[in-house]
Structure formats: structure tokens, C-alpha cells
């Protein structure tokens, strides 16, 4: 078992799992991801930021719900470091 | 004249329209989302209706819900403000079908002006100079790269359905284009409910000059002079002024005529703006028609004395234009600073939060369009524009002095805003000399954190 890393919201905003409503989600639970891979988007006052993986590893939990409002520091993903 | 108008917007522009209605003796209806119950436009309107959840696509972009509110309150007309549904043909048509007057251009105008791609073809045919771009919308990264290869890098990804700079990204090479493409589409979709984008050649170091136009239902089209909007960051205008320090009488007349031709080419109706890029040689290129009242409309109002929102309402009610630019007593200089709840020190990160301490500037030569008040909590869901501070004086120098003084007076705490940046600009000699282009603001910004580091 690698270390579990929390991926948190850098600021308050709305979380999106998909690049657009028609597209599939960026990632699913269990998926292997690279460091800096885009996991989702965070929209604050109409500005979109990419939520990126801090490490190479595996997505073990998607904590935040799609289209939900998050506060600064809320956990969005948990990624197991490889 | 209309008895009651519904304002399909929020924030400062909703308030702006409500004020015009009140002065004209027209009743106003505010609409609001569940996150906006405490918004100032709700308090100032005669009536208000909740139109849905916080997320804009379910409230301020929800056509059915807004039309229901209009029917329920028996509003005879809808003013869309800017952004949201303002340039959506489908909405203008739905109003028409519901027997409600849409205060703005005809649906066909929105089709052509709002769809930048089709609009440009018309302009080209009418002899208005245009910038090279993709022949239509691009739907895939491969297609975007092929177009970019053809017209040459750098290119911009632009939203076909939108305006106001949202969704625009500059790409210097194919890799950058590939990465930015989906995000640009996402932003376009979120802001305008239309995720189609197109590719356009990026003209380096131009000035952004736009002309206000008005058109009545009888084919009369006039212009009301220019606005200088070169002070922008990532295509978001920050400071606008009228007149432009760059234009002389001759160039103003030529560009004004081109603006009128552009409006006539699409059989335009109501208030609109024709945007141009002006290069160092004095050649200008048509960019787009903004088929709405614009954020920066106050600078034109102050120098012409014409209330553009009242003119929009009057023209939609069948009013006639019986004056031209030459009849107007053009006077003085007006400068607008868009105060955004963003931190210029931190890459312009938005700063939602509660306004704990609020003190607006006042005195001679000031106009302040804002929905802020002490205790107001800025929602995360909407645009970061919180106030438009406008100074007016007989000369440009004096207008800058007034603006500087007002920026110093303005307290919006503890939120981070763009005020400190504007104070630096007002103190800058190049700005005072009128010596700038669209890249000007970069010199004040810390080097941007690379998104990929």
C-alpha cells in the first residue's frame, strides 16, 4: 500500500468531473494516473482551474460530488501514491 | 411605453436597468437564483421571482423559468443585460413566441452577430476588413490544428456563441492547442450554453477600439463614437475610456462609418457594439459585433449624454432615431475601471467572500455602478465583476486624477480586488500619455505561475 494523498480544492468553487457534459469523466476510481494528470475542474466565479494529481498513482476515492460547491481545502480525490 | 419590464440578469447590470426603468416610470421585475436572494437587484426591483438553483444553467440561463416569471408577473418586455441569455437567438425567439418584447436585437441579428463565424462572412461581403480565421466552428483537436497550420501560429481559440473574452485562449504551437482545446470548449459552454469554438489568427500588439451603434426599426443606424478598450488581461477588458487617445477626427469618422456599414450589413436593430483591432499603422480590422448593451457602456453615456439603456427601451418600443453623431454635444473624457474580486498578486485568482467593510467613493466627476453593499456575500457561482468605477472630467488628465482619487477612497474589505493594480496604472506615465496597446497591462503583473509546474 502506497501513501494515500488528499487532493484538495485550492479555493472555493464548483467541482466538475467531466471536461464537458457530453464527455466521459476525467478519471474513475481505480484508474492509474500520472503526476500532474488532470483529474477534474474547479470553477470559481466563472474561472476554470484544472485539478491535477500531485503524484503518480491510483485514484482510490472520488470524495466530491460532480457539480457540487466546495470550500477552500475540501478533499476532492484520494490518490494512492505508487 | 411598456408598463413592466423583467430583467433577466443579476448584479450591477440588473441594477442599472432597474434604475432606468424607475426613471422612466416603468415597473421592474428582478429574477434571482437561490444563491442570490440577498442581491441588491432583488431589493431594488418592484417585484422579484426566484428562477432556480445557484448554477447559472439552471437559473439565469433557464429560458422556460424566466419566461414563466415574465408571464406570472405580466411583464411586457424582457431586458437581458449582458452575458447569460443576452445574445441567445433561441431566447429572443422564445420571447417573441410568448408575445413578450425582447429588449435587444432581432433574433436574426443574434444569429449573425452572436455567431461570429457567419457574422464575419457577411462583413467580408460588405467590404468591412476582417482577420483570417477558421471558415466555421471547429469540433476536434485535429481540425483545430489543421486550421492553425494553415493560418499560422499564434492562434486564438474563441467561443462562437459568446463574447466578453470568456473562453478565449492563445496557443503558440500544436501541443498547446491540443491541451487548451477542451478547456476552452468547457468555458464557452459554461458561460454561454454553447460550446462551439473557432480558431482565429492572433494579431500581435494591436489596440482594441470599439464603436457604439444604435439602430431603430426604420433602418436608421448611427454611431456614438468609440471606446478605447486596450487595457485588458487575457481578453478581459479592465479599463475602458472614451474617446480614445489614439483616434483623430479623420480616423474616428472612417471607423465610425465602417461600424455603421457593419451594422447595416446584418440589418441590425437596437444597441450594439462593433469591435475593431487597430494596428500601429492605423489599419483596422473588424473583430465582432456585440449584440447587447456592454459592460463599458457608461463611458459613452458620460461623453455623449445619452442614456443607452433608456434608448434600448425606447427603440424596442418603436422609437425613432432622429439624431446622429454630429448632432451630439460630445464633451470631456470618461474612464472606467472594472473592479473585480480577484487578486492581481495571485494570478488574478477570484476572491469570493463577505464584504465586511464597505465605503464607496463620491464627489465631483464620479459614477459608480455596483451591486455591492456592506455585509454582502459574493457567491462562488458568478462573475467576479463587483463594481464599475467611472470618472469624468473635461480633459483626459483630469479624468485620470479623479479616478486615482476615487480608487484611493474605495474600501471593499477584506476582499482582494483589482483596485491596487489600477492605482499603479493611473500613476504610470505611458498610460497618462495614452501610449499603450493590448499587451500594456502585462508590465504590472508578476510572472504568471505556469499552470503545469
- Roughly what fraction of the amino acids of chain A lie in strands? over 45%
Strand content of chain B: 25-35%
Q: What's the number of structural domains of chain B?
A: 3
- Please name the CATH architecture of chain A: Beta Barrel
Q: Structural class of the secondary structure composition of chain B?
A: alpha+beta
Rg of Cα set of chain A: 12 Å
* CATH topology descriptor of chain A: OB fold (Dihydrolipoamide Acetyltransferase, E2P)
Question: CATH H-level name of chain A... which superfamily?
Answer: RNA polymerase II/Efflux pump adaptor protein, barrel-sandwich hybrid domain
Helix content of chain A: under 10%
Helix content of chain B: 25-40%
Low-confidence stretches of chain B: none
Task: Let me know the CATH homologous superfamily of the largest domain in chain B.
Answer: ATP-grasp fold, B domain
Lateral arrangement of strands in the main beta sheet of chain B: 13-12-9-10-11-14-21-19
How many structural domains of chain A? 1
Question: What is the number of E strands of chain B?
Answer: 22
- Number of continuous helical runs of chain B: 14
Mean pLDDT of chain B: 93
What's the SSE pattern of chain A? EEEEEEEE
What is the number of E strands of chain A? 8
**Largest sheet data of chain A:** 4 strands, antiparallel
Question: Which shape of chain A, going by the Cα principal axes?
Answer: globular
Describe this protein's structure.
The complex is a heterodimer of chains A (82) and B (453). Chain A has 82 residues and is mainly beta. Chain A has one domain: OB fold (Dihydrolipoamide Acetyltransferase, E2P) (Beta Barrel). Chain A contains no helices and eight strands. In chain A, the strands form two sheets. Chain A has a four-stranded antiparallel sheet, with no helix packed on it. In chain A, strands 5-4-2-7 form a four-stranded antiparallel sheet, with no helix packed on it. The model of chain A has no long low-confidence stretch (mean pLDDT 93). Chain B has 453 residues and is of the alpha+beta class. Chain B folds into three domains: 100 residues, Rossmann fold (3-Layer(aba) Sandwich); 70 residues, ATP-grasp fold, A domain (Dna Ligase, domain 1, 2-Layer Sandwich), CATH 3.30.1490; 238 residues, 2-Layer Sandwich (D-amino Acid Aminotransferase, Chain A, domain 1), CATH 3.30.470. Chain B is built from 14 helices and 22 strands. In chain B, strands 13-12-9-10-11-14-21-19 form an eight-stranded antiparallel sheet, with helices on both faces. A five-stranded parallel sheet of chain B has the order 3-2-1-4-5. In chain B, strands 7-6-8 form a three-stranded antiparallel sheet. In chain B, strand 1, helix 1 and strand 2 form a beta-alpha-beta unit. The termini of chain B are far apart. The interface between A and B is medium-sized, with 20 and 24 residues.
Amino acid at each position: 500500500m502506497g501513501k494515500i494523498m488528499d487532493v484538495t480544492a485550492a479555493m472555493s468553487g464548483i467541482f466538475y468531473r467531466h471536461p464537458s457534459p457530453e464527455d466521459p469523466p476525467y478519471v474513475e476510481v481505480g484508474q492509474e494516473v500520472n503526476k500532474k494528470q488532470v483529474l477534474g475542474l474547479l470553477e470559481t466565479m466563472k474561472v476554470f482551474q484544472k485539478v491535477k494529481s500531485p503524484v503518480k498513482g491510483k485514484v482510490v476515492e472520488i470524495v466530491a460530488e460532480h457539480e457540487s460547491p466546495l470550500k477552500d481545502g475540501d478533499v476532492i480525490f484520494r490518490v494512492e501514491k505508487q | 411605453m411598456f408598463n413592466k419590464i423583467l430583467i433577466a440578469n443579476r448584479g450591477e447590470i440588473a441594477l442599472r436597468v432597474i434604475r432606468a426603468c424607475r426613471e422612466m416610470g416603468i415597473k421592474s421585475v428582478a429574477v434571482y437564483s437561490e444563491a442570490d436572494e440577498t442581491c441588491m437587484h432583488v431589493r431594488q426591483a418592484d417585484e422579484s421571482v426566484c428562477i432556480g438553483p445557484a448554477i447559472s444553467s439552471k437559473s439565469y440561463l433557464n429560458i422556460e423559468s424566466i419566461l414563466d416569471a415574465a408571464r406570472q408577473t405580466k411583464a411586457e418586455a424582457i431586458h437581458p443585460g449582458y452575458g447569460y441569455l443576452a445574445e441567445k437567438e433561441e431566447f429572443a425567439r422564445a420571447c417573441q413566441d410568448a408575445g413578450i418584447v425582447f429588449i435587444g436585437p432581432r433574433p436574426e441579428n443574434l444569429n449573425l452577430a452572436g455567431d461570429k463565424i457567419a457574422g464575419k462572412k457577411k462583413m467580408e461581403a460588405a467590404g468591412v476588413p476582417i482577420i483570417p480565421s477558421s471558415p466555421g466552428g471547429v469540433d476536434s483537436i485535429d481540425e483545430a490544428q489543421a486550421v492553425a497550420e494553415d493560418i499560422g501560429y499564434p492562434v486564438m481559440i474563441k467561443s462562437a456563441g459568446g463574447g466578453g473574452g470568456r473562453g478565449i485562449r492563445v496557443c503558440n504551437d500544436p501541443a498547446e492547442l491540443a491541451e487548451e482545446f477542451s478547456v476552452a470548449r468547457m468555458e464557452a459552454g459554461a458561460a454561454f450554453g454553447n460550446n462551439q469554438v473557432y480558431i482565429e489568427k492572433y494579431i500581435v500588439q494591436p489596440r482594441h477600439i470599439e464603436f457604439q451603434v444604435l439602430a431603430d426599426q426604420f433602418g436608421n443606424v448611427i454611431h456614438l463614437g468609440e471606446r478605447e478598450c486596450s487595457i485588458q488581461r487575457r481578453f478581459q477588458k479592465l479599463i475602458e475610456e472614451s474617446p480614445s487617445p489614439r483616434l483623430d477626427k479623420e480616423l474616428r469618422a472612417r471607423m465610425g462609418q465602417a461600424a455603421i456599414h457593419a451594422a447595416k450589413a446584418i440589418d441590425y436593430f437596437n444597441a450594439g457594439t462593433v469591435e475593431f483591432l487597430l494596428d500601429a499603422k492605423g489599419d483596422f480590422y473588424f473583430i465582432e459585433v456585440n449584440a447587447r448593451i456592454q459592460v463599458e457602456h457608461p463611458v459613452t453615456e458620460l461623453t455623449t449624454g445619452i442614456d443607452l439603456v433608456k434608448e434600448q427601451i425606447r427603440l424596442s418600443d418603436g422609437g425613432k432615431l432622429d439624431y446622429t453623431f454630429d448632432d451630439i454635444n460630445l464633451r470631456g473624457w470618461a474612464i472606467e475601471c472594472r473592479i473585480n474580486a480577484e487578486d492581481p498578486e495571485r494570478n488574478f485568482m477570484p476572491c469570493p467572500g463577505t464584504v465586511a467593510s464597505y465605503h464607496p467613493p463620491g464627489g465631483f466627476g464620479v459614477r459608480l455602478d455596483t451591486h455591492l453593499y456592506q455585509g454582502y456575500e459574493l457567491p462562488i457561482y458568478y462573475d467576479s465583476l463587483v463594481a464599475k468605477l467611472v470618472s469624468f472630467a473635461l480633459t483626459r488628465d483630469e479624468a485620470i486624477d479623479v479616478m486615482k482619487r476615487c480608487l484611493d477612497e474605495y474600501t471593499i474589505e477584506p476582499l482582494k480586488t483589482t483596485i491596487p493594480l489600477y492605482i499603479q496604472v493611473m500613476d504610470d506615465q505611458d498610460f497618462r500619455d495614452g501610449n499603450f496597446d493590448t499587451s500594456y497591462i502585462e508590465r504590472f503583473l508578476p510572472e504568471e505561475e505556469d499552470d503545469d509546474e
